[in-house]
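REQUEST FORM: STRUCTURE PREDICTION
Request ID: SP-0412
Submitted by: Lab K.M.
Chain count: 1
Length (residues): 197
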Amino acid sequence: MTTACRRSLYVVHMKIAVRPLTPDLWNALEDLFRDGAVCSRCWCMAWRIGPGYRKRTAAQNRATFRRVVTGGPPPGLLAFDGDVPVAWVQLGPRDAVPALDSNWRLERVDDSPVWCISCFYVRKSHRRRGITYRMIVEAVKAAKGAGVPALEAYPLDRELTPSATSTGVVTTFERASFEIVARHFAPRPIMRKDLRR
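STATUS: Completed
RESULT:
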């Protein structure tokens, strides 16, 4: 049995439940983000406001993101293993994360009103178990349900860089049938899944 198959079976065994991040789940997101120093500082504001998020306190970023969640629509999906929040994926219209447009590596491919997966976080205790792939699958379902023409992502290519990433890796997105549509910067391609097929 391949490693990917073992990971998929483990995810099924854990009975992961994935839900849109609505205001009633805010405490669960806080619990998950306490698990990682980067998340507890950024609060998913990096792609929303750009590098300026580093000049703000964690409390300011948290308060701003809470307003995003409260104002709706849900800005992503939260996964639970039983009652424990174990993973997050930021998901929504590319226009909701405008800092992507100020990064030459991630310049738009075209004017299509795509949604994008801009970041992930998986609880340390649940890593390397196939949860990122599961979050991609759930993101695809959510985007299809919203009538979006395509879903975009900006993972790192592990064949070209060993850097740590919160945006996922190319091979995981390839397993979910995403295709590379641009490489403005070789180690970080732009990948898409056409949802109209």
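NOTES: Residues 18 and 79 are 4 Å apart (CA to CA).
Reviewed by: T.R.
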